[in-house]
Design a protein that fits this description.
The structure holds 2 protein chains of 2 kinds. Chain A contains 12 helices and 14 strands. By secondary structure, chain A is of the alpha/beta class. The termini of chain A are far apart. Chain B is globular. The N and C termini of chain B lie far apart (about 75 Å). Classes of the chains: A alpha/beta, B alpha/beta. The complex binds thiamine diphosphate and magnesium ion. Chain A: Its cofactor is thiamine diphosphate. Chain A: InterPro entries: THDP-binding, Transketo_C/PFOR_II, Transketolase-like_Pyr-bd, Transketolase_C.
Chain lengths: ~325, ~375
């Protein structure tokens, strides 16, 4: 057992994947000597060399475009995008090339590319450093989209993502990089990559969340318990594909659901979950599925982010509203 | 394609013959210099500095004030009053020299580090702090001082500058070196790798746009040294795009002024773009969040300290222009006053309201967003009085 942070969990997971498979290469801006601006790749270049831990020129389209080429040549590139807001110069390569290669080649070409993106707000950063663009990828056929919510998942999910033959957009909750947990590497991962996890069991309503909002929702559930309300918390872990079986099972049990994410409200992951739950669990529902999310504005200047981001109070307000029906 | 191409045989380059030169040690760097680090004026065959010592005193004042503003902002960050600051330390001459060569109608597109250019354009330094304090995302109107908002997404503004310049061209605002207009785009050595920057070069070239690309090569893009972006001196890239490139000692305010002035003049006349590479050094951390001891040697810093852009002007003014100590004392006093005002202004910047920010998403607010704004306001009001 070792105590690790979420950031260190990804670091250890990358290290394990690189040790297991010499074709795994890591690439991005400032990931070598500096170890990345969040130190997630710290020490990797020293131990695996500059051929496998590549400080790239400053161009995101170049990072992803060359990762495609490396993948064609049999490598498994793990690309770091420095911040959420800087993935867009690479968007064309991701959407038109990475996502469609397998389809266009009738399955002959695989794209085992992982794109790591530190995302979300709450760190007091300047613009373009706090965004939650997961929907912009989850909406694209051919991409898989996941987000880890705790250090143990961080360790295993990054390895599972690297092992995936489909491209995976791996969203890392940057404000949770320093969260700690005990990790026992000898215990195999409890779940496959694309399965959700019930992190707290309850009967009155379900909170669906992922990434940075998992901690917030667990705290909300603890607070609600003091008022005699038993909330179930489901860490979705996978946004595309959604683990609908776990989602439906929870809703059939609690009959009420609130989806929580930092990403804007309209057409966010919550929209899809609400639609699917309505389609499949209509007769179990006591209330419409509600969403507690970021607002439909660009991410605001940091002095306002506390108001913008869903927090314990807003989650509980959402719970109050589903309970009122 | 198995058939050979018609016409004359194409030129063939063997990869090993490609003109790749190893990154140069800074001692060997060739650039336009008109004032040595020791404060001696030197001649250059193509560029001369034709202003008087009063103008040089003005540059000294600009650079000193700008450095003081920058130091104060760093201190404000350390004390928790700013979330972040990107220091311009070491780049004062590159910024002041280039900006002072601009005419009042020229337009500037900065990165996030152009505090010295902002100063020369007349932007109130307090306005620069809003972005870094987290109360706005650029608190000035670009039209007031012909100074666009800071652009954080690396390189994007070079295309904006080029498009703006194409507008100046279409407005027939060029063709006359005195009254014509031009645009200047600032960017870094790291940015030179971005597709946007390379596209801007192509656009500017084929449309002969009146734009000056001003690259501050401060040797670093966060932790990545310049040789991660290029194997040839950056200014030489311009030739491949079809316009002139020139390297200037970016720590020499006279040379930076003279070189940029020629480039802007060329643009205003209608002769098209120029790439200016200002060879300088980022003396501070990338930003206040960065720890440069992780990736660079302090010897480099010592070496570059000897090339300080302000010290050499002071040496010149003292030794060769007979400027007395009173002048320097006055500038220092002015700097302290500006810094104190900046600090007071920063502390009294009002905290914004999220409701105001809903209103700026669209010109015409959508009904859905208006509803969201009202719901948010009602929710926020429900906490009022709870302390
Ligand atoms: C598209 C994009 N990718 C990454 C970043 C993160 N980032 C901010 S500054 C920087 C380095 C920029 O280096 P350079 O262009 O040399 O400018 P300098 O900071 O040295 O002035 C990076 C990678 C960004 N802002 N935008
Ligand atoms: Mg630089």
């Amino acid at each position: 057992m070792t105590k690790i942070t979420l950031g260190k969990g990804i670091n250890a997971g990358l290290r394990a994947a690189m040790e297991a498979d010499p074709k795994v290469v890591v690439m991005g801006e400032d990931i070598g000597k500096l170890g990345g601006v969040f130190r997630v790749t710290e020490g990797l270049q020293k131990d695996f060399g500059e051929d496998r831990v590549i400080d790239t020129p400053l161009a995101e389209s170049g990072i992803i475009g060359t990762a495609v080429g490396l993948a064609l040549r049999g490598y498994r590139p793990v690309c770091e995008i420095q911040f959420d807001g800087f993935v867009f110069p690479a968007y064309d390569q991701i959407i038109s090339q990475v996502a469609k290669m397998h389809y266009r080649s009738m399955g002959r070409i695989k794209m085992p590319v992982v794109i790591r993106i530190p995302y979300g707000g709450g760190i007091g950063a300047v613009e373009h450093h706090s965004e939650s663009p997961e929907t912009l990828f989850a909406h694209v056929p051919g991409l898989k989209v996941v987000s880890c919510g705790d250090p143990v998942d961080a360790y295993w999910m990054i390895q599972q993502a690297i092992a995936s033959d489909d491209p995976v957009i791996f969203f890392e909750p940057k404000r949770r990089y320093h969260e700690k947990a005990e990790l026992d590497e000898s215990v195999p991962p409890a779940l496959p990559l694309h399965q959700a996890k019930v992190v707290r069991s309850g009967t009155d309503a379900t909170l669906f969340c992922y990434g940075p909002m998992v901690k917030t929702c667990v705290q909300a559930a603890e607070a609600a318990a003091e008022d005699g309300r038993q909330l179930e918390v489901v860490d979705l872990r996978t946004i595309s594909p959604l683990d609908l079986a776990t989602i439906f099972a929870s809703v059939r049990k609690t009959r009420r659901a609130v989806v929580v994410h930092e990403a804007p409200y309209t057409l966010g992951p919550g929209s899809e979950i609400a639609a699917r739950v309505t389609e499949e669990c209509f007769y179990h529902l006591e209330a419409p599925v509600l969403r507690v999310t970021g607002y439909d504005t660009p991410y605001p200047p940091s002095r306002m982010e506390e108001e913008y981001l869903p927090d314990l109070d807003r989650v509980l307000d959402g719970v109050d509203r589903v309970m009122e029906y | 394609m198995s058939e050979s191409m018609p016409g004359s045989a194409p030129e063939v380059f063997a990869p090993h013959e490609a003109p790749v030169s190893p990154p140069q040690a800074s001692e060997e760097v060739e650039f336009v210099q008109l004032l040595t680090p020791e404060g001696e004026r030197v001649e250059h065959p193509d560029y001369s500095f034709d202003l008087d010592d009063e103008a040089i005193k003005g540059f000294y004042r600009d650079m000193t004030l700008v450095r003081r503003i920058d130091t104060e902002a760093t201190a404000l960050q350390r004390q928790g009053e700013l979330g972040l600051w990107a220091s311009l330390l070491g780049q004062e001459a590159a910024q002041v020299g280039s900006a002072r060569s601009l005419n009042s109608k020229d337009m500037v597109f900065p990165t996030y580090r152009e505090h010295g250019v902002a100063w020369c354009q007349g932007v109130d330094p307090l306005r620069l702090l809003g972005l870094f304090r987290g109360v706005d995302q650029g608190g000035w109107d670009p039209k007031d001082n012909n100074f666009h908002l800071y652009t954080i997404v690396i390189g994007a503004q070079t295309l904006h500058a080029t498009g703006y310049a194409m507008g100046q061209q279409r407005d027939h605002a060029i063709g006359d070196a005195e009254n014509g207009e031009c645009t200047i785009a600032y960017f870094g050595d790291g940015a030179s790798s971005q597709g946007d920057v390379n596209e801007a070069f192509i656009w500017a070239s084929v449309f002969n746009a009146p734009v000056v690309f001003f690259c501050q090569n401060n040797q670093w893009a966060i932790s990545e040294p310049i040789d991660r972006q290029t194997r040839i001196p950056l200014y030489q890239r311009a030739a491949g795009f079809g316009f002139p490139g020139i390297r200037v000692d970016g720590n020499d305010v006279l040379a930076t002024y003279a070189v940029t002035q020629q480039a802007t003049k060329r643009a205003r006349e209608g002769s098209g773009p120029t790439l200016v590479e200002a060879y300088t050094y980022r003396m501070g951390a990338h930003t206040t969040s960065d720890d440069p001891t992780k990736y660079r040697l302090s010897e480099d810093l010592e070496h570059w300290k000897l090339k300080d852009p302000i010290q050499r002007v002071r040496a010149y003014l003292t030794r060769s222009a007979g400027v007395d100590q009173d002048f320097f004392g006055e500038v220092d006093a002015e700097a302290d006053k500006i810094a104190a005002e900046l600090r007071a202004g920063c502390l009294s910047l009002p905290n914004p309201e999220l409701t105001d920010f809903f209103q700026h998403v669209y010109v015409e607010e959508t009904p859905q967003l208006a509803e969201q704004r009202e719901q948010f306001a009602a929710y926020a009001a429900s906490f009022e009085g709870e302390g």
